[in-house]
Amino acid sequence: MKIEILGTGCSKCKKTKEVIEKVLKNEGVEAEVVKIEDIEKILNYGVMITPGVVVDGEVKLVGKVPDEKDIKKWIS
Amino acid sequence: MVDVFYPLQWIADKLVYEVLGIAPDTHLAASVNFIIYDVLKILILLVVMIFAISYIRTFVTPEKTRRVLGGKTGLQYHLLASLLGAVTPFCSCSSVPLFIGFVEAGIPLGVTFSFLITSPLVNEAAVAALWATLGLKATLIYAVSGVLLGVFGGYIIGLMKMEKYVADFVYKIKVGDQNKKPEALSIKERTAIAFDNVKDIVEKVWLYVIIGVTLGGIFHGYAPEGILATYAGKDNLLAVPIAVIIGVPLYSNVMGMIPIVESLIGKGLPVGTALAFLMAVTALSLPEMIILKKVLKNELIGAFVLVVSLSIIFTGYLFNIIL
């Protein structure tokens, strides 16, 4: 599984990465977590308000830090 | 009119005079009373306003805004962009993707700016804090003039034909359409989103509210009456531009700023000058300019700062005349 976090480096984007990594660890799920900071790539996903979360190429969440419940749903 | 906030004053009085046992009519009592009353009032209005606006916002996404405004010119679309900006907040780190997304959708530069100017200027948290501190009338004046400032600021920038001062790469980016969520949300989901948002914002700003109110409270209790009327009253024509020039580069949490400004008004700072200062703080900031430099050339950033600052100064004078 590939999880991409879209964001140009604001505090919410960092928090998003932390929460996702925490949930992955707790659930024992292996996934590649990448932070995408390139504006062009972010916009290619159609995301204008960061942070955005993309799981296996599908935009799951835009504009806010995901809560742990959301993340569990995406990775199960 | 019945004062719906009367119970808060009652709580503040009880706490100050009976629980804390501070003698009334002292500077300390005036300060502490002001702090307790203001913090309670701001937090309550914050929760209510953020919930209401967040709920409305579940119907307004930037993707929809792009579709509605694409390729449209005319003052009515500036108004629409400005209103949509008022209900769509974004942190300054999103201003670049948002800007590119709008330009790519064929939204004219001026209409894009109407959105970008109003969005930070009129937001639910600032409106709630203003309502709590300066009352409904000043808040409505702030909100309406904020929206109009976005309309005319964007319109003027549109007239200046500055498209060539947008960084070239902006026109080459293709915005994807993966992020299309046609599914309709249920009332329960919208309520949950709105609650989440209340929690997020209150967590972020409560400390600023308390710091701001405390500083304001100290000023309220100890500064001499009318001190600001003497130095920065309406007859001092330089007061408004100076307030704006101080406010523009200032990057501060507006939630902390509003209670301080309230206490300044209490000591004779004219409301128009105060609102102009708050507008300058929220509408323009140095970090935002630095971020926007990625997509805008200096000429366009200069025009943006100039048009917005002059509009705010004009608005400040206007308030001082009519209020």
DSSP, total strands of chain B:
0
- Give me the Rg of chain B, rounded: 21 Å
Shape of chain B: globular
Describe the largest sheet of chain B. none
The strand order across the widest sheet of chain A is 2-1-3-4
For the termini of chain A, the CA-CA separation is: 10 Å
Structural class of chain B: mainly alpha
The class by helix and strand makeup of chain A works out as alpha+beta
Inertia-based shape of chain A: globular
Helical fraction of chain A equals 40-55%
CATH T-level topology of chain A: Glutaredoxin
Radius of gyration of CA atoms of chain A, rounded to a whole number? 11 Å
* Domain module tally of chain B: 1
Q: Please tell me the CATH architecture of chain A by its name.
A: 3-Layer(aba) Sandwich
If helices are DSSP runs of H or I spanning 4 or more residues, what is the number of helices of chain B?
15
Structure explained in plain terms:
The complex is a heterodimer of chains A (76) and B (323). Chain A has one domain: Glutaredoxin (3-Layer(aba) Sandwich), CATH 3.40.30.10. Chain A is 41% helix and 25% strand. Chain A has three helices and four strands, in the order βαβαββα. Chain A has a four-stranded mixed beta sheet. In chain A, α1 (11-27) links the parallel β1 (2-6) and β2 (32-36). Chain A is globular, with a radius of gyration of 11 Å. In chain B, α2 (27-57) packs antiparallel against α9 and α4 (75-87) runs parallel beside α6. Chain B is globular, with a radius of gyration of 21 Å. Chain B has one domain. Chain B is built from 15 helices and no strands. With 323 residues, chain B is mostly helical.
